[in-house]
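I trust your eye. Have a critical look at both lines of this record:
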Amino acid sequence: MDAKILIESFAEFARSKNVDRPTMIRILEDVFRAMIRKKFETDENFDVTINADKGDLEIFRIREIVDDNSEDIWDFDKISLSEAQKIEPDFEIGEEVYEKIELEEFGRRAVQMARQTLIQRIKDLEKDILYNKYEEQVGEIISAEVYQILGREILLIDGEGNELILPKGEQISKDRFRKGDTVKAIVHRVDMINGNPKVILSRTSPVFLERLFENEVPEVYDGLITIVKIVREPGERAKVAVESYDDRIDPVGACVGMKGSRIHAVVRELQNENIDVINYTENLELYVSRALSPAKVSSITVNQESKRISVFLKPDQVSLAIGKGGFNIKLASRLVGYEIDVFRELNEYDDEDVDLNEFSDEIDQWIIDELKKTGLDTAKSVLALTKEDLIRRTELEEETIDEIFRILRTEFEQ
């Protein structure tokens, strides 16, 4: 393989990978200089000129002419007068000899290795380009096409044919994709595994929801409305705290849009995830009250030391505060940064009810605490629910719940 064919084939391959000309030339020169070093031990006195467009390669060895008896005659950049005059008879001491080195002089094996090295360098460069491209896009929304669905992940292809990964854990539970579907997600992270970049996408990250709001709400994109915090149970419920420094802008209204037009687009993308947009405030009690929406809070007690908040509600508001699957109270706690305990207000009709703490001699305290976390603080509030309700709301086993029902019912039968 001569230099012209080698360079032209490499240049064509490099262009197919969108490698710019200066980078292409630099790689070619690096590889040829590596060949020179292998054969001559150094490349310091060699000049390499490459024209990738024409496939031209010129390698010149440059040496200074010294007397045949000089002590420097063995230096890599020196040549004896007698040797120089074999190249050109009228050379004199002190002049420089430019000796052209043909590619064939390196041997067929070295040239084949150079070709393989050039291709590998482009592939490595391609990996670096992919890594850097997506490293800069971490946290940004992209669209990609599904091309293979595996058990633990979905493989997608971007517009340039690069492979991206959407793991099962980064998918919304209600996501159902087929080959050829276009998927929106954020670039979650880029891992380098064994020299290969792995671009990981996410649809469950709070950042994904934030970017969707930026796309749908111009005031958020322009910075007129700030998203203070987002907490999510992907596919189920999310709470978004927003604020505006401009009194003329209603941040909640702007995010929801006329008749919900703006937020509906976000909800559809998130598989009908229920999104609560809340007006942020530094008034903790008001913030907690808003975070527990749609429940209406009667009173709040804050314990700064334990970072716990006791919230008291009317009986018909307790289930609203807890929410389906307990998502509402869990998200509210994460949003405000405090553990929230929900308590039911007693009224005059609750005189015959009994506080759960009264059963501490028969029911373990950790079980009572587990029930109280879900707003169940009296015997009748527990008995008002079915076994299925308690299994769904708590982490208690079915046998434990049966025993709780037996103990509480015995109290009222007596």
